[in-house]
Amino acid sequence: MSKLIVHGGTPLQGRIIPSSNKNAVLPVLCATLLTAQPLVLHGVPDITDVRKILDIFGKLGSSVQMDYASGVLKLHHRDTHFDACKHHLPEEMRSSIMLVPPLLARFGVARLEDNVKGCTLGVREIDPHIEVFRRFGGRVEHGEGSLIVRCDGALQATQHWLDYASVTTTENFVLCAATAQGSSVLTNAACEPHVQEFCRFMVMLGARIEGIGTSRLTVHGVEQLGGGEFHFEEDFHEITTFLALGAITGGDVQVRNRTPDNFPLIDRTFAKFGVQIEHKDGWSRAIRKGPLKVETPFTRNVLTKVEAAPWPYFPVDLLPIFIALGVRAEGNAMFWNKVYDGALGWTGELSKFGAHVFSSDPHRIVTLGGNPLSPAVVESPYIIRVAIALFMVAASIEGRSEIRNAAPIKRAHPRFVENLQSLGAKVEWAGEN
């Protein structure tokens, strides 16, 4: 069991170069299977999910040259082959489902394990993906412990309206539509920054996509895609995480950020807890003057709220980070997860620090901040930024704490502990396998 040992109470200070967004990198890696031309990707992070996908590519016969020190990946899927009887896609990673469209396009068949999963965020159905595959002409069959998707000939263009703006379903639609015959239209498409980055990569390959950054995408299918070179942007999740770490510890952390246009709502949410964000010369900085304090709404008979939902709402993946700030801030705040069932069940762990958190229902909690906290041993569920949120609280309290089951952090944040140590944090991994 991997756990973080934290000796908190040290204000973090310094500069951080964030990694790329795994939610952009993983769909891009899956998309590379659509082309037999050589590719060079810059800024590929050394995280467990990347290693698993590259391992699959190697087993399929692709040429994979990965330099984790520089983050440069050279890929060539010229000699790639796929056998649905022996090749298994990694079931512990939800992004595996995005390997289905390129395998269909190139080999006419894909096999997916029945229990594909990612973070434990409640029920995460695959029905929307199955519907997309079928609309493009795929046939979905149940095998022994797996799903087999087949298609005879080229995929056929379609029009589709999603039930909700799902990131992965949107990306699967684009992956299917890119080489389908005809023009496809998706309404209620997700438009998060990582979806936009993924779409820009597809355009670099030669895909014809209209409406990037909006809720309606039109994709004109092409016969084949090419190669090229692509540079990933910094992860806005990681930028926000390190800014929040600086704020909660009373430090001064600056993070490189070349996409400040993604941050107006995130900045306003920081301000609700007494933290001002400054963007200057390609860097972002969290400025805290005095204690963390929940902003009083103009309408005084309501609570300050952080409502998380699909972009351009506040990003749901960042909600735990701000719950940590809410626990440490003077005043009360409501946090509302409008996306995942069961994603707030972990907040009971905060009580081990002495925090007061009231669960309204499976989607809403209220933090009753300003209470004295003490170090604790806490258990994180398999959710990346919940482990980080628990670490944030521990880092803000003098004394020794443990964050158990913290390994999910490695799925998104390479060199997380090393970066923290460079800022002055007293933290280390323990009990690693």
End-to-end separation: 7 Å
Main sheet characteristics: 4 strands, mixed
Q: Overall pLDDT, averaged? A: 93
What percentage of the residues does DSSP assign to strands (E)? 25-35%
Question: Which segments are poorly predicted (pLDDT under 50) over 5 or more consecutive residues?
Answer: 117-124
Percentage of helical residues? Answer: 25-40%
Number of strands: 23
The value of Rg in angstroms is: 22 Å
Q: Which sequence of strands runs across the widest sheet?
A: 21-22-1-23
> How would you sum up the global shape?
globular
Classification by helices and strands: alpha+beta
- Give the count of helical stretches: 11
Protein topology:
Blueprint: E1 3-8, E2 13-16, H1 22-31, E3 39-42, H2 48-59, E4 63-67, E5 72-76, H3 100-107, E6 109-113, H4 127-135, E7 139-143, E8 146-150, E9 159-161, H5 167-177, E10 183-187, H6 193-205, E11 208-210, E12 216-220, E13 228-231, H7 236-248, E14 252-256, H8 264-271, E15 275-280, E16 283-288, E17 304-308, H9 319-328, E18 332-337, E19 356-361, E20 364-368, E21 377-379, H10 384-395, E22 399-404, H11 416-422, E23 426-430
Parallel strand pairs: 2-14, 3-13, 9-10, 17-18, 21-22
Antiparallel strand pairs: 1-22, 1-23, 3-5, 4-5, 6-8, 7-8, 10-12, 11-12, 14-16, 15-16, 18-20, 19-20
GO molecular function: UDP-N-acetylglucosamine 1-carboxyvinyltransferase activity
Enzyme class: transferase
Family: Belongs to the EPSP synthase family. MurA subfamily.
